[in-house]
Each structure stands twice: as C-alpha cells, then as structure tokens.
Design brief:
This protein is α+β, with helices and mostly antiparallel strands. The chain folds into two domains: 9-235, P-loop containing nucleotide triphosphate hydrolases (Rossmann fold); 242-375, OB fold (Dihydrolipoamide Acetyltransferase, E2P) (Beta Barrel), CATH 2.40.50.140. It has eight helices and 20 strands. The chain has helices at 48-56, 98-108, 113-126, 142-154, 172-189, 200-206, 224-229, 234-239; strands at residues 9-19, 22-32, 37-41, 63-68, 71-72, 83-86, 160-164, 192-197, 209-214, 217-222, 244-254, 257-262, 267-272, 287-292, 298-301, 314-325, 329-336, 341-347, 362-367, 373-375. A six-stranded mixed β-sheet has the order 6-7-8-3-9-10, with helices on both faces. Strands 13-12-11-14-20 form a five-stranded antiparallel β-sheet. A five-stranded antiparallel β-sheet has the order 15-19-16-17-18, with no helix packed on it. Helix 2 (98-108) packs across helix 3 (113-126), helix 3 (113-126) packs across helix 4 and helix 4 packs parallel to helix 5 (172-189). The longest helix has 18 residues, at 172-189. The radius of gyration is 25 Å and the shape is globular. The two termini are 34 Å apart.
C-alpha cells in the first residue's frame, strides 16, 4: 500500500537540455510516494532514462529541482544520495563470487567486516539465492544474475531503488518470473521502486502507477487500468497496448454519449464515455477519433441488412484477411469496406472447433458503445 506520508521523490519542473534544440526532459513535475512501485514508460528517446539518471545523480538538470525525502539533491553527487540502481546489463563482476559481488558495496563504503556477512546472507535470502553465495557469475542463469544485481543494490538499504530496463535481457518466462519477484521484494523490503521500461506489459504487471512519457513530457499518470482503459491522448492509446482508431466528425452529443460519422468505418459509431469526462467531450462538427481495444471486439458471420447490433452496439462489416492462433487467443484481421484494417483479439474458449470464421469470409465486427474510447488528439 502507498502511504499518505509526504512524497519520497519530487521532481519540480525539471528539464534537461543536452544542446540547443535538444531537450530530453521538458518541464516534468512528479511526486512518488514511499513504498510505491512507479514505472516510467515510453518509447526510445522519450526522456525516461534521462529522468531516472537525474534522480540517481548521474545527470544534472538544466532547470528545476529534485527532492528526496524533502531534501534538495539537485546538485548532490550520486554517492551521497539514498538511492541505488540496477542496470540493464547486470554489471556483475565476473571474477568475484556471488557473495563477494553482493558484499562489494558495503566493503568500499567502510562497513565493519563483522556486519557484512550477516547483511550478505540477508540480501541473498531476499532474492532466494542463499545457496549460490560461492558460485561465480558464469555458473548462473540470466534470471539468477539479475537477482544478484538486485541483492547488491538492496544490501545498502536505499530509500529508493532505481531499475533501468532491468528485465529486457531475459526471455519471456524468466521475465515473467522476475516481475513477480520484483513485486514481492517491494512488499518485503518496504522501499520505493522506480523503473524505466519501454515494455508496456512489464510496466502494467509490476507498477502501482505508470507515467507515460512522450518527447520529454509526462503525458499521463495513473494506474495500469486507468492508463489502458482511459488514455488521454492518441499517443497513450496507441503506445499502451493495441488499439483500433477511427477518425471522423461528431454528429451528435447526448450527455456522455457521442455519435461520430466515420468514412474509415463506413458507418456511424457511438461512444458512451465516463461522466467524469463530460466537460472534455467534443461537440457536433468537431474532428475526433474513436478507439476500441482488440479484445473488446466480437467477430461473426455477416448478416443481410445488418445495422446496429443489440443494445445499440457498433457494427462494421468487412472481410477476414488472416487469422493467427496464439494459444489462449486468436488474432483476426478484418479489412473494412473503406480499406481500413481492424484487429480483433478473440479468446479460444473451445479446445476443439476453433473460431466460427475463416479467411476470406464476410464478417461483422461489433462492440459496445461503452467499450469505445473517444479521443481528440
């Protein structure tokens, strides 16, 4: 749980410019709470790693202030900040044993020898590597190496643990296992985690909150559900997960229900938005985009003279281009009459029989108005 105490980390209007016209971070303000797992998510070059490095002290802001526990650390060197960092490439010393790697930070900090052994044992137990203390790095798997790097960072008991693309070198199964380990560790050690990643599934799996960055700016902050189901911009909608977008003009607004005419869809479409967004909705004649996630779509054989579906569902027609079987679901691509291709993610609920449609078949694609996401830009 996130506490109600003052934030551990504060960025106050922080910017970083590397050269005239090259702004990596542009006026970011952000509070991160004690014991929170916060993920900075965005494409390469969006500024997320630069923001993390300014928190670590490896980069100095061009403007703004960085606070840790209420203390201004904007110009404080890295070794005098209560943070530690786990890098993408592990940075484990190959000539040392696992135990010596984990103890290294304490030794160079001058911690008394009698304290080092128990703290190494404690750190290795946290990451479930107690029996590996005498092994060399080349004798470990990628997931084990990453846990050695975590133990080495945790042994110094930082207030904040920084993770820079920590799982990108692992295969899918190891990555999923380490995601669970990170969540467990955050609860056990009671410190704040800040992670940088370009992998939206990873961010959604581990983070209590996500900050999405685009071209140096934080464009949305929220829980995984908020960012995925209620994106504020087309960039967020498109980057966090997969989405089908239809451009059109608003023809009618009734409360929080918006009707949009879209040539791309070859039909009128309806969005039923949340009441909290009523003041943000476009008006009649405005240009807008209607988005719908692939898993919200249903695909079935076309019916003669089909229009709106049950309870006013959106219905568009097209031809199945291809089907891809992915185990727990199948991906179906449908070309609409206007040429736009939409993607549907359909659950494989039956072991035998597969889907009811096949490539080349005429189909209807439908979804509920409440599953539509209305976007202005």
């Amino acid at each position: 749980m996130i506490s109600n105490a003052p934030p551990v980390i504060r960025f106050l209007d922080v910017s970083k410019r590397f050269a005239p016209g090259v702004t990596a971070v542009d006026g970011v303000s952000l509070d991160i709470a004690h014991n929170e797992f916060f993920a900075l998510l965005g494409p390469s070059g969006c500024g997320k790693t630069t923001l993390l490095r300014m928190l670590a002290g490896f980069e100095m802001p061009s403007a703004g202030t960085v606070l840790l526990d209420g203390r201004d650390v904007t110009r404080v060197p890295p070794n005098r900040r209560p943070v530690n960092m786990v890098f993408q490439n592990y940075a484990v010393f190959p000539h040392m044993t696992v135990g010596a790697n984990v103890a290294y930070g304490l030794r160079v900090s001058g911690v008394p020898r009698r304290e080092i052994g128990p703290r190494v044992d404690e750190a290795l137990a946290l990451v479930h590597l107690s029996e590996y203390a005498g092994r060399r790095p080349h004798q470990l798997s990628g997931g084990q190496l990453q846990r050695v790097a975590l133990a080495r960072a945790l042994i110094k008991r930082p207030r904040v643990l920084l993770l820079d693309e920590p799982l990108s070198a692992l295969d899918r199964k190891l990555r999923e296992g380490m995601q669970l380990e990170l969540v467990r560790l955050r609860h056990e050690v009671g410190i704040t985690f800040v992670m940088v990643t370009h992998d939206q599934e990873e961010a959604m799996s581990v983070a209590s909150r996500i900050g999405v960055m685009d071209r140096g700016r934080l464009v949305q902050i929220g829980s995984a559900g908020e960012v995925y189901e209620h994106p504020r911009t087309r960039f967020v909608a498109d980057f966090v997960g997969s989405i089908n977008l239809f451009e059109g003009r608003v023809t009618a607004v009734d409360g929080v229900t918006v009707r949009l005419e879209s040539e791309e869809a070859g039909a009128g479409l309806t969005a039923a938005e949340d009441h909290a967004r009523a003041a943000e909705l476009p008006g009649p004649g405005d240009r807008a985009w209607l988005g719908v996630r692939p898993e919200k779509l249903s695909v079935g054989r076309a019916r003669p003279g089909a229009g709106s579906g049950v309870n006013g569902a959106n219905v568009v027609t097209g031809t199945v281009l291809e089907l891809a079987y992915l185990g727990e679901r199948s991906i179906c691509h449908v070309r609409l009459a206007g040429g736009k291709i939409v993607k549907a993610s359909l659950p494989n609920e039956r072991r035998f029989g597969g889907l009811d449609v096949s490539a080349g078949e005429s189909v209807e694609v439908s979804w509920a108005p409440a599953s539509s996401i209305l976007l202005r830009g």
